[in-house]
């Protein structure tokens, strides 16, 4: 048990260190950069959940945008009435997050139940149908505010910090802290017994069942955990943009989340962070580049060019470099580590989806 | 009553288009064990070519041929140029590459042609014909019905009665054994892609005149419907695709006619979820669990 405890403690310590670093970094950024940082942190919640789901259990979800939307709506539906009832900021925010967790967890649980019975293409198709149906869902279900979506109460800078920061920086702080709270448990799960079970189910369901692991329970559990993380991301995005609506959570956005985890490396949480930054910053960068062009051309390029680049990236990474960024850096780290200390790299082995390997994998599951 | 007859018969015509598209998904699944998420984008691209040919020559027949040929060529290009190089025994890398292809194709079409819908006039009139005083199908719907049935019967004959069909089925089920018996398995996979994307292009070409018009995303909803059909019937079952297509087409038509068009996607989603939760093996699947 002490081994697990020290591992958990080291993960939490590392997370706390990274969070403090990110919080400090917000002071060096201007308001717009801080806004982008908040969006990246929110997206990171979803990509971290998705990379766990796809990389470790092999369930391909194209619908994580819907889970983010579920979190956003959950937040808005609770925080809106709470604000009208006159609750102060912190309590309202906590209740809103609870709403986000409940709704996204429920939607994720339902999808997970379906996912436990389905595989590969069928689950992907179901989640795809869900994303396509989201605008209809938002307009037809009463209380979701139709196309415009719901407004979300404004979270201003609290009195103590009001002299130090502007609202964008405060929102970035909120986003960073929520992302840390959402992602750290995922990393703990991934490195512990639950992660092992997920990999076992992904590797060989029959063998996992013989070893006493219930594939259905593991898959549903993974889906719920992944959905809750995505839902928290959606709640943060709702706070930052003060709105939640179907427009933001289109199929294109859902596919971008997939691009982020594939490019970052399936199963790698660090890769998910890099991927989240990429899918937020690249479209903005491309749009900035295109803004000097004639209006007609700019209108055509806006949005489309970034999607084309992402699609090409998705294809190139999958065909040429199946492990994504994580494998490359882990390989470098592993080699460097061996050279320095002659100990095997801890946790550096990329998990999940080794597509190029022949299937009967000779290594025992514990080493994968 | 009149309204019901009209809605059901229109639904059947729409359903056959969905069935055609679902059939194209079944063909590719049986040939290469992959769900081609890029099917709709590829088909829309072929229809853009057909659209240009029709505008240039004024002949619908030439446009039809152009859609089929372009679809087939796109299928070959994607299989030879891309899918063949995807490693792995799990279906996931193939799916991810197909999704990447959707993004590339749709955004390229968006850049080239803009976001607006290009209207496409149907080759025959869309006002309904009357049978005994009851409005039933339009001429165009009848045309769609006939074309779809001809293609379905033709594919059935090809797969079940010809040597090529036997080779196609054999190389899909047991590639190693087929290779030992002299079947050129890679060529069969390519032929499967050709057939599949040509059929998909035909389905989108038949669909577009009845919808808003041609746009990079014209095929998206059709793909979701067809995928629902594939889940209803099972990706391995052509008969299931046919029947499922008609069921989904009639459902969408009835919901649109009696409730509202906004509810149709929800009805399809509800149908899909119900089937998945109640009978996850699909209605026509023989096996208890799906193994991808």
Automatic annotation (TrEMBL), chain A:
Keyword Transmembrane: yes
Matches recorded under InterPro entries: ABC_transp_permease (IPR001851), LivM-like (IPR043428)
Localization in the cell: Cell membrane
CDD domains: TM_PBP1_LivM_like
Topological type in the membrane: Multi-pass membrane protein
Top-level taxonomic group: Bacteria
Transmembrane segments: 12-29, 35-55, 62-83, 89-113, 120-138, 170-189, 255-285, 305-332
Region (Disordered): 336-368
Biased composition (Basic and acidic residues): 358-368
Entry keywords, A to Z: Cell membrane, Membrane, Transmembrane, Transmembrane helix
Name of the featured protein: Branched-chain amino acid ABC transporter permease
Highest classification ranks of the organism: Bacteria, Bacillati, Actinomycetota, Actinomycetes, Micrococcales
Automatic annotation (TrEMBL), chain B:
Subcellular location: Cell membrane
Residues passing through the membrane, by range: 6-27, 34-53, 59-82, 94-115, 142-159, 188-208, 266-286
Recorded superkingdom: Bacteria
Topology versus the membrane: Multi-pass membrane protein
InterPro entries with a match to the protein in the record: ABC_transp_permease, BCAA_transport_permease
Family: Belongs to the binding-protein-dependent transport system permease family. LivHM subfamily.
Protein name, UniProt field: Branched-chain amino acid ABC transporter permease
Organism: Isoptericola hypogeus
Origin organism lineage: Bacteria, Bacillati, Actinomycetota, Actinomycetes, Micrococcales
